Design the sequence.
C-alpha cells in the first residue's frame, strides 16, 4: 500500500461496528498510528484499565513519581503486547523514541517521557496505554473491505478532552 493511498488509516480513528462480537474491540475507538505494507498499529483510546493506577504503574516501572499521578488513568491500548507501555501525546515531540502520527500527535514508548510525566514535566496532553492493536500485512485492508470497521478523522478533542465513556458516541457522530 502506498503512503498516499486513500485507504491508509494512519492518523484516523477506527471504530468498531455496532454489535462487533470481539470483546477486545466492542464499542472501541482506535487511534491508528501506522498503516503500511507491513501491517497496521493502533491503540484503543476508550478502555480504562479497571485496576491499575498511574502510581502503581510507575512503581512497577521503578520510576519516581509525584502524588499527582494517583488519579492518572491507564488505558488498555489493545490485546497485543499487553505489558508494553506506550504514550500518545501532543507536543513536545523530542523524546527518545517517537513516531509522528499527525502534526499534533506522536507515539512514544521511551523511559524519558514516562519519567517526565511522573513528575508533571511531560507533554500537556497525553494518554498512557498498556498494549496495542496490531494487524499483519493487508489484514486491516481486508477487514475494511469487509466493512468490519467504520472510520473517521482523528480528533484532538475526542482523544484528549472527551470523557472516556463518551468517546465512542462522539466519534460515531463524525462519520
Sequence:
Amino acid at each position: 500500500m502506498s503512503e498516499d493511498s486513500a485507504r491508509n488509516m494512519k492518523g484516523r480513528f477506527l471504530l468498531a461496528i455496532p454489535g462487533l462480537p470481539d470483546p477486545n474491540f466492542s464499542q472501541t475507538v482506535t487511534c491508528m498510528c501506522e498503516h503500511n505494507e507491513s501491517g497496521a498499529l493502533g491503540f484503543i483510546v476508550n478502555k480504562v484499565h479497571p485496576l491499575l493506577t498511574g502510581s502503581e504503574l510507575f512503581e512497577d516501572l521503578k520510576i519516581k513519581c509525584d502524588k499527582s499521578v494517583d488519579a492518572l488513568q491507564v488505558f488498555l491500548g489493545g490485546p497485543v503486547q499487553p505489558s508494553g507501555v506506550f504514550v500518545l501525546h501532543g507536543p513536545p515531540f523530542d523524546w527518545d523514541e517517537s513516531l509522528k502520527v499527525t502534526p499534533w500527535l506522536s507515539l512514544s514508548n521511551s523511559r524519558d517521557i514516562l519519567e517526565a510525566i511522573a513528575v508533571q514535566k511531560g507533554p500537556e496532553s497525553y494518554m498512557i496505554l498498556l498494549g496495542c492493536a496490531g494487524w499483519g500485512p493487508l489484514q486491516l485492508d481486508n477487514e475494511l473491505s469487509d466493512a468490519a470497521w467504520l472510520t473517521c478523522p482523528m480528533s484532538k478533542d475526542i482523544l484528549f478532552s472527551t470523557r472516556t465513556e463518551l468517546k465512542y458516541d462522539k466519534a460515531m457522530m463524525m462519520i
